[in-house]
Input
Amino acid sequence: MSRKLGLTAASAVLALTLAACGGEGAGSNSDTSNADPEDLSIGVSMPTQTSERWIADGNSVKEQLEDEGYEVELQYANDDIPTQSQQVDQMITQGVDALIIAAIDGTALSSQLQAAADANIPVISYDRLIRDSENVDFYVSFDNFKVGVAQANALLTGLGIANEENPGGTATGPFNIELFAGSLDDNNAFFFFDGAMSVLQPLIDDGTLVVKSGQTTIEQAATLRWQQETAQKRMEDLLTSSYNDGSIVNGVLSPYDGLSRGIITALQNAGYGSAEKPMPVVTGQDAEIASVKLIADGVQSSTIFKDTRLLAEQAVIAAKAFLEGDEPEANDTETYDNGVKVVPSYLLPVVTVFADDIQKELVDTGYWTAEEVEAGQAD
Ligand code: GAL
Output
């Protein structure tokens, strides 16, 4: 706390000094390439603390930046767009030298980003692409289309249907499935859904998979702000509207563990998880600890593990490159068009985790301890 206040005070002084000297407005940055990291500060803006994943991201980014010697101002915005805009505004006024932002609404930060550009502050879009602004300098994320493909393949594997991850599957269906998507203001939601549908649509078309509700568009499947309760409510509604004739759901495509937990609660409340009504195959994403436990316990089928430590590392590498006067290295310069320009990106690979993979992928790699998996919560 005192460290944070110290930084805020120091940054305020810096901002005032810059404003006084340069007349370019508070937060205007000079050339940082020869500066000592100790004299530079980086603003990190994260969407919410209601999900463990963003807490892990925030902690990893902060620790790794501090290891490089930088000062860090980390803020969470409670999934509230005005709060995030205000926090980013403040960071700019305080004179941060670079910004790392995971946006709540990818289209809502244009004026903040313009202010950052005017002050020569490089902006790194973290995991979620910031849209409709030319002032996004770099994007670090995972291969989000592949996340969707992996979720669909995990659904098929869970149902026993052959797919590229599990060519030996022999089940032919038909299986009843329902589809969930993320928040429509998050660019990633479209990549996940499109990736998943690239695998599922042919099987829906040939009758192997049946979406009994008929709700197959992303707009119908969307979940505002990725809220668990919203997903639970929609699953309850789907069960009431489409499965009150004795039919059962066999699988649910869920793009994020928080939604999966809401979906599972709705299913359990409706009696799923018994011999007559087995728990459907439910997918997920983020390897959140509560869901990893559900997977270990055979309740949730799978998740997609995205190592936030590696993502943080890429964000730090990018920030460092900008601050040293270089351009960070991109491994994708085609996919992420934010509506104004294609943003150079560094995309990381993802790993599908079923119960059998927990030890190797999550425990042996130090992401979660065996005790945390057992308890279903982080230490
Ligand atoms: C997405 C992110 C996912 C998940 C989701 C909900 O932008 O890529 O991994 O965390 O938000 O928080």
In short: The radius of gyration is 22 Å. The chain has 13 helices and twelve strands. The pocket of beta-D-galactopyranose is lined by residues 51, 53, 127-128, 182, 186, 188, 226, 256, 285-286, 306 (CB under 6 Å). The first strand starts at residue 41 and ends at 46.
